[in-house]
Structure formats: structure tokens, C-alpha cells
Specification:
15% of the residues lie in helices and 29% in strands. The protein is an alpha/beta fold.
Length: 237
């Protein structure tokens, strides 16, 4: 008499079901923005992610929300602060750290003209354009033209002096709506140089131009900065 096959089939089916469930558990849970706690109120988002808090390199990706799903519109290698990344609310000025968190992008600026087709608000850098970082100034963490008397030159960035780095840039709204003195000023997304930054996020010039062409006021773009995991994981923001 031929042996019954049912037990073998049952075991095989059980193994397949278990394998299927295991595969489902390991499946990616959507895109990075889908896993974030907040992405802002708009349909455009930039993510700037470093492997860890001490990292000075990582990746910037810009996203569009279409039909209820986040879709990558582009990606580029990025540079971060020379001393890595730190929680934005705990950051201290002058530490060469990039603040983590979810921030607005108030406007763009540049020494070079805006790429043809740019519609995002773009402010041209002039000879008397400064960014005040003086904690004692009423213009702390603001663009000024010209530099006010209460903002010391040694405590401000003369924007035109930054050459290729500020050919194109976006103001990151860190410590911007209601500036806390001593927390930090002048955090931008700008063109990268040869090494890490003083706290900004930097990408290649071509990527910066593509981001400016992509950004739309109606998309209300935000930027989220963070690490892959840990206390400053980007998914927390």
C-alpha cells in the first residue's frame, strides 16, 4: 500500500506559510517619509540623513507626495557639520554641529542668478548682504542689508565672501521663527566644498540647482535632518 502523503503536504504548506509571514515582517514599511513622525503640511520634503551622530557625510533626497504616496524626485551625497549632528533643541552656537529636526525653508538665495525656471522666492546676494549671528544684535539670525551697527562684523557672515559655497542656497528655518540666542544662526542647505561644514547641510552644485528648480511655494517644502537610528533618528521628526 502506498504511504499517505497528507502529513508531508501539511508540513510543506506550514513551512511556506511561515516563510511568507517572515518575509512580510521583513518587508520595507514604505518610503522614508512614510516612516517619519511628521513631514510638514506640504507635498514636498527634503530628507538629509547621516549614518550616525558623529558622521560628517550622508545623503540628501527630495520627495513629492503624489496620490497619497511619497515618491523620490532626486538624491545626492551630502556633507554635515565637522562635529556631526545634534538635537536641534539642544544645539549650541559655534559647535560646528548640524541641528536635527524638521524645519521650514523660508526662501532661497545665491551669489549666482537663480537657475532659469526657478519659481521659489530667491534673494540675490549683493555686496552689502550679511547674515547676522551676533547674540547681542536685534537682527540675530536674520539677513541684513546693510549690516546694522549692533551686529559686529566678526559675528556675522558677509555672504558674498563665501563664493561658490553660496552660489545657490536655501535658508533652513532652524532657530528662525523665534530665535533663541546662543542656539545657532545661519544654517543653510548650500553648495558643498572640499570638507564638512560649520553646521549646514551641503550638496554638489548640480544637486542644489535641481533642488531649486524642484521647490515650489505651493508644495510648502520642509527639510528633515537626522540620523539613521538612535536619539536623533530622522523617523522621530
Amino acid at each position: 500500500m502506498r504511504p499517505a502523503l497528507a502529513p508531508t503536504v501539511s508540513v510543506t504548506v506550514s513551512v511556506l506559510v511561515c516563510a511568507s509571514l517572515l518575509g512580510a515582517a521583513r518587508a520595507p514599511q514604505g518610503t522614508l517619509p512614510d516612516r517619519m513622525a511628521d513631514t510638514g503640511p506640504g507635498t514636498q520634503l527634503i530628507t538629509a540623513v547621516a549614518p550616525g551622530a558623529s558622521s560628517t557625510t550622508g545623503t540628501v533626497t527630495w520627495w513629492d507626495r503624489r496620490d497619497g504616496h511619497w515618491v523620490s524626485a532626486g538624491s545626492a551625497p551630502a556633507r554635515f557639520g565637522a562635529n556631526g549632528l545634534v538635537e536641534g533643541a539642544a544645539r549650541k552656537q559655534g559647535t560646528n554641529t548640524t541641528p536635527t529636526g524638521l524645519f521650514t525653508l523660508p526662501y532661497a538665495f545665491g551669489i549666482a542668478a537663480a537657475p532659469a525656471g526657478t519659481t521659489y522666492t530667491y534673494r540675490p546676494v549683493r555686496r552689502d548682504s550679511w547674515w547676522c549671528q551676533d547674540n547681542d544684535s536685534t537682527s540675530y539670525n536674520r539677513w541684513t542689508e546693510p549690516r546694522p551697527a549692533d551686529c559686529r562684523a566678526q559675528e556675522a557672515e558677509h555672504l558674498v565672501a563665501y563664493g561658490p559655497l553660496y552660489a545657490h542656497a536655501l535658508v533652513v528655518g532652524f532657530n528662525y521663527p523665534k530665535p533663541v540666542r546662543g542656539r545657532g544662526a545661519g544654517i543653510f542647505l548650500h553648495v558643498r566644498g572640499a570638507g564638512p561644514t560649520a553646521g549646514c547641510v551641503a550638496v554638489p552644485e548640480d544637486a542644489m540647482r535641481r533642488i531649486l528648480l524642484w521647490a515650489k511655494a505651493r508644495g510648502r517644502p520642509h527639510i528633515a535632518v537626522g540620523t539613521e537610528s538612535g536619539p536623533t533618528a530622522i523617523t522621530r521628526y
